[in-house]
Amino acid sequence: MFNKQDDTAQQKLISVINKLIGIIVVLIIALISMPFIFEYANQPAAKKEEKEIAGNGAKTDAANYWTAPDVSSITDAKQKQQVEYGKQLIAHTAKYLGPNGSVLKISNGLNCQNCHLQAGTAVFGNNYGSVASLYPKFRARSGGIENIYKRVNDCFERSLNGKAIDTAGNEMQAIVSYINFLGSNVPKGKKAEGSGFKDVAFLDRAADPEKGLTVYAAKCQSCHQSTGEGVFNADKTEYIYPAMWEKNSFNDGAGLYRISNFAKYVKYNMPQGVTYNNTQLTDEEAWDVAAFVVSQPRPHINVPKDWPDKSKKPVDHPFGPYTDNFSEEQHKFGPFKPIVQEQKKSEEAAKEKNVTASIK
Ligand code: HEC
Ligand code: HEC
After folding, report:
1. Which of 35, 108, 94, 73 minimizes the C-alpha distance to 256?
2. Do the Cβ atoms of 250 and 257 come closer than 8 Å?
3. Ligand 2: distance of its center to the CA of 21 in Å?
4. 91-95 contact pairs (CB < 8 A, 24+)
5. Cα dist. 217→52, 223, 276 in Å?
6. CA distance linking residue 207 with residue 200, whole number of Å
7. Residue 261 CA: which ligand 1 atom is closest?
């Protein structure tokens, strides 16, 4: 038997050993988890969010999308003023240049921002992230090299069914400064991730205007109206809900008149409030509502010089003549997969022809 003194000494020893074991266990756990904590802390914010979303089983995208630089970061007062005016002109175009515009009356009442969301900065909201970096560039529609002025005026003439503005004027200069400023964080020649539109897969059938009417009535009409005419604000200086067809809408030479562009815009941006990672429409609904809207009456523009090389017309360009044998109807509504296949075949045939020609 131990005496009492030995007893307490032994208890003290045991409690010290217990504490030591406790500390060692905590240290080991900390050491093991260190690399994970480090990796997590070093991830870019977007990736972290993606992992968190992935954990909830939601759809995610791996890319880090472009974000616009902040106008308030501009130090040169003159440049800042011009860029701010440019941003205003994109966001509230009609107030300055619409049917009741304060500067000129040369366009239909739409704002650039109606289609280039959040003043041209929204991910897959047709943003301007890649304009400064990729223009001037060749465009098959005109068959020539286009600079930013020409591209902006294209949207004035087609999307805003209006007139081109003077490239030396204050308004064009401000718009181009703003677009150049937005792209100032994208290296020349590079495409910004998430600029323009996100693709929607082709259907195996033609898009169906009748089914599209049902989608429109259920999900669009409350804002854009059953007449497609939208809703003007009280003093008629700009739209609250922009026109979708009829006289104040984009004309049949506009990018959005092509059903694939319309489906891409709508799928990832409409009804209002939808974003690329929080969509409402199925692919079928997006194609069908596009088919319905492009079947409604709208202004016409005469552009005989478009697509000088007919073989470069996009599959969904709804006006012939074409270099293939598909009808205008099929080029307007699809199905597009057979057209794409045929295009690939003739491209390969052309390549082979070139090879044999160079061997000869
Ligand atoms: C009705 C919708 C609509 C409106 C309004 C509109 N645009 Fe566009 N814009 C488009 C579409 C669609 C494209 C892409 C077309 C394509 O790639 O075929 C585009 C493309 C552009 C591009 C080229 C983008 C790139 O990355 O190549 C610029 C620049 C542009 N628009 C400027 C403007 C300006 C400035 C305004 C206002 C004056 C405007 N747009 C109004 C639909 C619109
Ligand atoms: C809650 C109201 C609301 C609903 C519902 C809605 N939109 Fe919109 N839509 C808007 C607003 C507002 C804009 C302009 C966005 C901006 O300027 O930020 C817009 C812009 C558009 C544009 C580009 C501008 C134009 O008029 O050509 C198209 C195309 C469009 N919507 C299609 C649709 C379709 C198709 C649906 C149904 C699937 C739909 N929208 C549902 C409010 C709505």
Report:
1. 108
2. yes
3. 65
4. 91/119, 92/238, 93/160, 93/238, 94/237, 94/238, 94/239, 95/237, 95/238
5. 36, 10, 23
6. 13
7. 12
**Alpha-carbon distance 247 to 262, whole Å?**
18
Instruction: Please report the atom of ligand 2 found closest to the CA of residue 230.
Output: 26
Kindly tell me the burial class for residue 272, based on how many C-beta atoms sit within 10 Å of its own C-beta (0-12, 13-18, 19 or more).
exposed
pLDDT in tens, 136-150: 999 999 999 999 999
Length of the chain counted residue by residue:
360
Do the Cβ atoms of 129 and 192 come closer than 8 Å?
A: yes
Nearest CA among 46, 186, 189 for reference residue 127 = 186
Checking phi first, is residue 122 left (phi over 0); if not, alpha (psi -120 to 50) or beta?
beta
Ligand nearest to the CA of 242: 2
pLDDT in tens, 263-297: 999 999 999 999 999 999 999 999 999 999 999 99
Between the alpha carbon of residue 212 and those of residues 16, 171, 223, the distances in Å are 77, 38, 16
